[in-house]
Amino acid sequence: MSTRIYPIGIQNFEKLRMDGYLYVDKTALIYQLVKTGSYYFLSRPRRFGKSLLISTLEAYFLGKKELFEGLAIERLEKDWDTYPILHLDLNARNYKTVESLEEELNKHLEIWEKTYQSPYHDRKPEERFFHVIRHAYERTGKRVVILVDEYDKPLLQTLGDPELQEAYRSMLKPFYGVLKSLDGYIRFALLTGVTKFGKVSVFSDLNNLDDISMQLPYASICGMTEEELRLYFEEDIHTLSSTLKQSYDETLGTLRRRYDGYHFTEESEGVYNPFSLLNAFKYMRLGDYWFETGTPSYLVELLKCTHYDLYAMAHTETDADVLNSIDSASYNPVPVIYQSGYLTIKGYDPEFKLYTLGFPNQEVEEGFVRYLLPYYTSVNVGDSSFEIQHFVREIRKGDPDAFLERLRSFFADTPYELIRDQELHYQNVLFIVFKLVGFYVQAEYHTANGRIDLVLQTDLYIYVMEFKLNGTAEDALRQIEEKGYALPFASDSRKLFKIGVNFSSATRNIERWLMD
Q: What residues contact residue 352 under an 8 Å CB cut-off, 6+ apart?
């Protein structure tokens, strides 16, 4: 068993270096960051190393040269000056009331006021912050470094509560706005978070931030590239390949499909999810490590309340303005889904400056779609995997009546808020089910104008299916013939099923199917 210590959940750079944890060297990028600008914002999904980046910067600005021995920055930095640091971490609390945010800000402000002897503790948070920065500069003679980790945690936790979110925004906007008014006192500032909220938001007073979230030079400042994977984990890949009974190259392909695929600009190489990758090497098992550490319940509620087309979500086109900010008044869930790491950039049209989005990898795609199933159907949360397993077995056995009857059961007892738009609901359920089935059998799924055509292929069977809403099963079956959907399989030796299915809005379920 490997004696390497993987930095899973380690957010403190000093602890990581002193205790011998593995470190993928990002310090050349950090050096570039601090030498070429002063005010930055970075958005990345959770568990991507943002807190460790903040801690690394803190160690650097404290002049702890010994922690950087053997790293790229050791050769680049000559001075190793020390600076006063104000590190605000908003990640350590649940924000359910206005008081909870006030208490968290007060906790940090009290520490800073004591450290730098600022006597203005009876003022508003933004005034206290102003005076702390001023006193830190005056008492040390050095400009101040400000590091904010998870600036958006209070806002993210209140996406479904506009009133509380507005209260948080009103408190944070002037607080962060202090940075602009004290430019001469500040050496460096970095704010990180999962999301970037809209222009009329916490950053509207802080328009001097350089947002590097979608800038190519910093695309890999968090996460791991293919080059880093091969450089730091060569031995681990060989060990995992033995466990999986695959070749080295096959194992690389498996890791790529499961954990790679994050693109933060249109031109960047794929970035691996570091949390899942490190866990896979520690336990020598391919698991859904990232997905299992945080359920996207707030995203699902957002999709449901906006009546969003899930098929469109997985094939959407949008521009940088939409991707770059979340407006609480907007009913577009795509920006928060993208920034949370469940969608990523898959393509770019330079003429129209449009990004094509999709799921980054198999872990996220399968985990997210499986998580959706109980929210859109009558399937219980604990039964999702069980139901899909039966579905796949029935398809593989050549029993279309059984899997269509099971599909019919998925529509039973559907929550009222989901059935107000019948067409969208039936399309969303079919998308979820056949997306999940597609992880086990070959599936091609297309939707347009209230109808869906689907092709499923196994080793022994081919299913060509047409779904209609408020039509007839006969019409659906006739369309398969008229459109020639089965023609590509005319000379195929596998058994072919042509199936027409009609969904009735009156019964809110599959009304009938016919097979040929």
A: none
